[in-house]
Fold this protein.
Amino acid sequence: MHFITSDHVQLDYTDQGSGQPIVILTGFGGSKDIWHAQIPVLVQAGYRVINLDGRCQGLSEHTVKGLRMSRRAVDAHELIEKLQLKQPILLGNSMGAATWFAYASLYGDTGIKALIDVDQSPKMINTPDWPYGFKSVQWVDFPDYFRMLLGHSTFKHIDDDTYARVTAVEEQAPFDGKLMFPLLVNHAVQDWRDIIRQLTVPFLIIAGEKSPFFDSDFAAVTAKMAPLGQSVVIPDAGHIVMAEQSAAFNEALLAFLKTL
């Protein structure tokens, strides 16, 4: 399905199931098909699952417009408004989770039921007070560091069915890293720790024990910032936790959802 944003960009999404809504966002360079192993499980558990490709990702329009975190948050808000979703649960991996932090900074959290961050540190740049950023990147490296290849995001091969689906999408709509570079830079400069401290809704971080991008210790440290924060580290999983260890991820996700 498609919808048109207020700045006239066409975004692609799916809407499956009924009941409590969950809105999903994928990370930089990914498509919504990476959540293939989660959608049927969530639908069967009684959730309505809305899965959105961000602008320039997956089957959404590729454009130079709005390549900033705030605009991605507005895009998601506009879809939530269009679908008239009440108290959605917000779920995101990597930059998708950071987009939800941007969402909370713009709209607060009174309109949402919970927020779930999958392997995304709230601060990408390592500093003396924050050693949990992206790999070893520091301000002295910025922004040239992000012009280089970021390396493998996974620790193990993702599920075969999921891999086939995301590969098919990539062939149909190749990811353009050069086009998206301004967004990556905008993502990298953010510090969402103040937003996390202000969250009043349940907040879960699911981190990959073997994430090539982040030290998994960030999850417990970050969760403690939020009044209702908690964290889970999935063994033998990299950055794409939900597709590398889908069974363990789904178990952790459903256990959290049952507490809401």
User: Anything to note?
Assistant: The mean pLDDT is 97. The CA atoms of residues 86 and 195 lie 22 Å apart. The radius of gyration is 17 Å. Strands lie at 2-4, 10-16, 20-25, 47-52, 89-93, 114-118, 203-208, 229-234.
